[in-house]
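Weekly sync, protein design subgroup
Attendees: M.S., D.O., the rotation student, P.L. (late)

Item 1: inverse folding check
M.S. brought a backbone from last month's batch and wanted to see whether the design step gives back something sensible before we order anything. D.O. pointed out we never logged the input encoding, so this time it goes straight into the notes. Structure tokens as presented (469 positions):
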């Protein structure tokens, strides 16, 4: 792969500003403004990161998390670009590419969760579980949907991913001008495709990170191919996708601990002890220094007379860990530069790098003390009821919609609740397709609608439809 193609500034729908308009922005800078001005981005303020429907102004939402990932991604872009220019000295990486890399990564950080459904990662699980259970039971003209839809169409729902939905959202569903969505640059689109395989090519046991999940829906296969051809990735992972993933890891590993502490899921003393007890046979001097640093942060906070020295320590320590992780990910990119550029690197940037164990420890502690805590589990049980209700009723209506088959009054009302923009996009891409693909696109119309909902909207809609309010 070569940087000139990887940083492709072209768009799926050709666009050029008017001559003499005075707009001096690069194409990637224009992407940034398209993203932050979108309703889809604004909706992230009411989507769960870890704690659903939390009223605290401290706890992170998808919006604040995305801003943090964007910031870390840009910082990594600056560091990595300097390393390429000063030390690696790849002749194909021009000095002007540094700004492009930073802009692309900044935008990719804003987009990386934009396709996620409400109620955090549990939303993805709820959608997958519902389709695995119900798709074999649903029928179309007397035949089970599993006999109507192709294997890839079925797997698209069984393996449903917010990352995959993000590509669909920005290339089609953001129907402001036309059916090309935000019409972002191909260099940026290539960066947000973390897994360049279809739902039937997933191989979690391969040891190759690129096949861990799916990266595009069957409905978006042509867009995917065009991005791959324009960027020269051709089935390989875009090198900047590794950087985006590292930025996400840095953000959520440290933030989840900080939020869990703030919510009272774990005490300072318990956090320190958990870190000390984590895989003692794998701990090295650097890991031990990071744990001692947390203890020293509290000692200093006590000396300064802080009212909450433990909270001050955790927040300050998280920032320092983030700095260490940025340096570690930068070093990982440099170490594996050739493999990243030829598409053979199979791990993440932290693999066997300093700080890897701390990343693992933070993830383990956050999972045990936050993700499976009683308050979260109760909320997820409630969220499951919401997803099941909405999917049941919307899918029931969507199967018959635009098919010539008679619809009940309730089914017609359910269809009227769907986004007019999403329905317009459906009709554009359903035109000329056979009956099977049109049915598949109608099912996608339902997941499009649900993923576009905020936590509050999904909850309120469920309560209204249930007659509770």
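Designed sequence read out in the meeting:
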């Amino acid at each position: 792969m070569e940087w000139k193609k990887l940083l492709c500034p072209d768009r799926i729908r050709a666009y050029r500003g008017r001559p003499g308009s005075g707009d001096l922005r690069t194409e990637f800078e224009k992407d940034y403004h398209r993203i932050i001005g979108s309703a889809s981005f604004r909706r992230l303020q009411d989507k769960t990161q870890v704690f659903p429907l939390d009223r605290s102004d401290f706890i992170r939402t998808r919006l604040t998390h995305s801003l943090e990932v964007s910031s870390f991604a840009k910082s990594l872009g600056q560091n990595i670009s300097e390393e390429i220019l000063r030390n690696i000295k790849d002749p194909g990486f021009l000095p002007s590419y540094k700004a492009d890399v930073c802009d692309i990564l900044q935008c990719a950080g804003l987009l990386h969760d934009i396709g996620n459904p409400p109620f955090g990662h549990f939303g993805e699980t709820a959608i997958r579980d519902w389709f695995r259970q119900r798709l074999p039971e649903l029928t179309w003209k007397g035949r089970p949907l599993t006999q109507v839809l192709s294997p890839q169409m079925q797997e698209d729902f069984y393996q449903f991913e917010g990352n995959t939905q993000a590509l669909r959202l920005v290339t089609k569903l953001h129907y402001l001008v036309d059916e090309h969505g935000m019409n972002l640059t191909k260099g940026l689109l290539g960066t947000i495709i973390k897994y360049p395989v279809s739902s039937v090519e997933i191989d979690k046991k391969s040891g190759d990170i690129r096949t861990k999940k799916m990266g595009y829906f069957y409905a978006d296969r042509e867009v995917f191919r065009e991005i791959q051809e324009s960027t020269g990735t051709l089935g390989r992972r875009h090198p900047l996708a590794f950087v985006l993933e590292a930025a996400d890891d840095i953000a959520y590993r440290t933030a989840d601990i900080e939020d869990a502490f703030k919510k009272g899921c774990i005490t300072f003393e318990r956090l320190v002890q958990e870190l000390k007890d984590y895989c003692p046979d794998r701990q090295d001097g650097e890991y031990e220094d990071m744990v001692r640093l947390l203890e020293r942060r509290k000692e200093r906070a006590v000396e300064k007379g802080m009212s909450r020295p433990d909270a001050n320590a955790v927040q300050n320590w998280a920032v320092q860990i983030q700095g260490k992780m940025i340096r570690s990910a930068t070093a990982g990119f440099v170490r594996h530069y050739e493999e990243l550029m030829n598409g053979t690197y199979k791990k993440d940037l932290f693999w066997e790098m300093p700080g890897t164990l701390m990343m693992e420890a933070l993830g383990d502690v956050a999972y045990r003390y936050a993700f499976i805590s009683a308050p979260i589990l109760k909320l997820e049980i409630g969220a499951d009821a919401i997803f099941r209700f909405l999917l049941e009723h919307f899918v029931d209506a969507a199967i018959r919609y635009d098919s010539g088959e008679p619809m009940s009054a309730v089914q017609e009302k359910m269809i009227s609740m769907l986004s007019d923009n999403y329905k317009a996009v459906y009709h554009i891409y359903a035109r000329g397709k056979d009956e099977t693909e049109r049915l598949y696109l109608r099912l996608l119309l339902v997941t499009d609608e649900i993923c576009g909902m905020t936590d509050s909207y999904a909850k309120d809609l469920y309560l209204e439809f249930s007659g509770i309010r």
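Discussion: The beta strands are 139-140, 143-144. The first strand starts at residue 139 and ends at 140.
Action: P.L. to compare against the previous round before Friday.
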